[in-house]
Amino acid sequence: MIVLIVAAASPAAANPKYAGIVIDARTGKTLYAANADAPRYPASLTKMMTMYLAFEAIDAGRVTKESRIPVSRKAAAEPPSKIGIRSGTTITVEQAMRALVTRSANDAATALGEFLGGSESRFAELMTQKARQLGMSKTTFRNAHGLPNSQQVTTARDMARLGIALREHFPHHYHYFSTRSFQFGGATFGNHNRLLGNVRGVDGIKTGFINASGFNLVSSVNDNDRLVVAVVLGGRTGASRDAQMRKLIAEYLPQATRGGGGNLIARSGASPVLAASAWALPERGPVPVFRDPIDMRVATAYAAPAPASAQAAIAAAFPVPNERPVVGREALAQVLREQQASVPTPPAPIVGQEMGSSEIDAVTTASTAAEVATASAAMPSGWVVQVAAMPDASEAMAYLQNAQRKAGGQISSATPFTVAFQDGGSTLHRARFGGFAGKNDAWAACESLKRSGYGCWATQQ
């Protein structure tokens, strides 16, 4: 028995870089932890967050998988691993994502970050902001790829949280992390994750290595209705890292719960905010095509009073680092002006963060499409779906009713309601749907909203 205990502890004892954790992704219970909250360098695990923000941008309608990404000199010059994209050319968002999960391509990561954030530094700010919203309190990003930067740090626990969030929030995109190979420019790039196809139940997520970090790996394992996310950081070699991961899976997967559970990220106390309003349109990137002005519905982030004009709304929704001009912004504003004659002007988006806001006792529900109940109505409990936050309660309710008519499906029988809260001295109103039987119904409702073009977030109250 003593020998077994020493063997189990040996990775941490013999290797000062080592950190590991195994979490039951259905309950949030930590099944194993060693140095799980100690600071470590993420290396290419960074690209998990790059992928998270890409998925978020796709779902928000900012980009499509076919959108063309311009390749800058900086992106093309990144050191390996890379796929060899040339400055002045373009790749699609789809190609960039597949390059990240297989080759762990630094050139594609930088190009994607510049495209989504306007600059890589701005994108890194968005990555860190998203980390905070997910409860990754000890993670800071400084680039989109994970190449050495002394200020780019994380923990095993934070990486496990991100791995869970990717599966929970983007089940429709998660299959990218199971990609075995990717063809580009006449070459075929295999996935660096050697556990895919070799360890039962492993369906992702990501490997990483720089000298300062050692060999890192985040694995998601889904087998026999048990689901765990495991993290190994600081392996001396890729082989020893993989061996440790195999050992953790074999030992702790049988201890995981079968079925049940909820959204761990929502229960963590993280701010349920989409950062869609923070995206900057790249100077040479495509202008998103909005179906109608109500698509300014990316008002799922929060801040002070809304801009008064359509042009100001565009400027607020698409901030540009260093005040550089954005090609296409005026064109987009013109599209909105032309459509205003036939479509009612929606509430302008509210941008910023919800950090540190506090609820106040003011809840409004809608009893019918034409009548709004008083603020004394009871707040629906359990799982809810949030779609926006606005300065006016009646506008927020009208927004919910419009979304309900358009989305149908699971949303048609949901209860629209608003919750007022204080943010920086201003009162805002969260626009939410409630009345769901549980997590699965709430997530299905959110998917219906997304298919109709509405950003949303399912969470527990």
From TrEMBL:
Organism superkingdom: Bacteria
Active site: S44, K47, S104
Ubl conjugation is among the record's keywords: no
Pfam families recorded: Peptidase_S11, SPOR
SPOR domain location: 377-461
Ligand binding (substrate): K206
Protein name: D-alanyl-D-alanine carboxypeptidase
Species in which this protein is naturally found: Georhizobium profundi
